[in-house]
């Protein structure tokens, strides 16, 4: 599916879940490349990509990704720059950079000239802690149900 714009506005049919991003060939004013990228990356719980995921998709070094990023140590929420890789807003200067998959695809297509970029998000695998918390939740729900049944008698 096509990426309409970096700010998440659907102009070309991004699916409702925002799961599959596919960018078409670059516009005529960007350098052409025969590189194709088809990558499945793990995102955080909010659906954002960290530096390592962006590095993997763009096939660039960590230093390159930092050079591409539209960041300034004194400004947490820099104005959008179409020639840079724009991270999501940060609350503190020490917060890690996180990127929307649509923004990464836009940057790869429009700035780097990568012909086809496809980013598929998948949820991170469940950890032992998450599994334990899920079991605790089920048990608490069961206890609540039993208590409500006792009160209704």
Key traits:
3-stranded mixed β-sheet, disordered N terminus, 153 residues, 3 strands
Structural notes for this entry:
Helix content is 33%, strand content 12%. With 153 residues, the protein is an alpha+beta fold. Strands 1-3-2 form a three-stranded mixed sheet, with helices on one face. α1 (51-58) packs across α2 (62-68). It starts with 19 loop residues before the first strand and ends with a helix. Residues 1-35 have low confidence and may be disordered.
Element layout with pairings:
Elements (H helix, E strand, L loop, with lengths): L19 E4 L12 E7 L8 H8 L3 H7 L32 H10 L5 E7 L5 H25 L1
Parallel strand pairs: 2-3
Antiparallel strand pairs: 1-3
Helix pairs in contact: 1-2
Distance between the termini: 56 Å
- Class per helix and strand makeup: alpha+beta
| Radius of gyration over C-alpha positions, nearest whole angstrom | 20 Å
Number of separate helices = 4
Largest sheet: 3 strands, mixed
Shape: elongated
Helix content: 25-40%
């Amino acid at each position: 599916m096509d990426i309409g714009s970096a700010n998440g506005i659907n102009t070309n049919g991004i699916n409702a879940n925002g799961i599959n991003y596919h960018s078409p060939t670059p516009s005529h004013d960007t350098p052409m490349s025969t590189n194709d990228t088809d990558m499945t990356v793990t995102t955080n719980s909010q659906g954002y990509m960290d530096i390592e995921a962006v590095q993997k998709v763009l096939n660039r070094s960590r230093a390159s990704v930092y050079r591409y990023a539209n960041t300034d140590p004194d400004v947490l929420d820099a104005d959008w720059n179409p020639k840079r890789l724009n991270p999501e807003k940060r609350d503190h200067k020490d917060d890690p950079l996180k990127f929307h998959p649509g923004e990464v695809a836009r940057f790869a297509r429009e700035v780097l000239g990568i012909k086809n970029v496809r980013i598929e998000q998948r949820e991170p695998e469940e950890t032992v802690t998450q599994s334990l918390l899920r079991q605790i939740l089920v048990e608490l729900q069961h206890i609540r149900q039993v208590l409500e049944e006792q009160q209704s008698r």
